[in-house]
Amino acid sequence: MTEMPIGEIFGFAAGAAAAGAVSGLLAGLFGIGGGAVLVPVFYQAMGPLGIDEAVRMHVAVGSSLAIIVPTSLRSFQAHFARGAVDAALLRSFLVAVPAGVVVASLIAAFISSAGLRLIFAAIALAVGLRLVFNRDSWRLGDTIPGHPWRAAIGFLIGLFSTLMGIGGGVMNNTFMTLYGRPIHQAVATSSGVGVLIAVPGTVGYIWAGWGDPLLPVGSTGYVNWIALALIIPVTVLVAPLGARLSHALKRRHLEIGFGLFLLIVAARFVASLL
Fold first, then answer.
1. What percent of the chain has pLDDT over 70?
2. What's 152-188 look like in SS3?
């Protein structure tokens, strides 16, 4: 494993704690696990520490998924208590979403760092543009489709979200709103989807990176425990605040805010590929 000087570890720790506060707020506000913040922050922070490019993105994604576990659980609790979660839709995803996660974990064992960044940027760009320029007329229907289409969509949500290191909010919010569901319900349900993604995704990324000699200190597979120890307590405390803000804001404000955030993240990753 790659060793870090003590001073650089402290610098990384401070940045990770700050990222944890922001990601926890976003987890509750947008129904995401915070991965859209954590992945680019981790990727950039590990560069000056001398961590090899070949594993930087993988560690960022794997660690993000692990952090999403308690964050999504806490956010889901807060939204469920308000009665905003579509429990029937969530139950229909119980098999399909984790199946996509398993396939993504297998892909992660072989895909390059650039490949992961490209996937992240492409999906974030598409969803961000759709949210910023959204119109009520942009719908695929008024009723969410049943099986087998719903299972296929759940599989793709699990697949692409795991490759991005996010909790499913990006994909599920888009899916539900395209079929006429209120953004607040989509946000709330997405926090539950995050649980279905993060738990098996964490196990999958540990397996995918097991024994890699390029991993930074404190890692098991592609999950870095130093980052988890610093960020998880902060995100769990802040997520309920985001949930309260979510229910206080108008739908269009949520869409524009989430969309602009995704566009900024996409631009940053595209720049890293040039």
1. 85
2. HHHHHHHHHHHHHCCCCHHHHHHHHHHCCCCHHHHHH
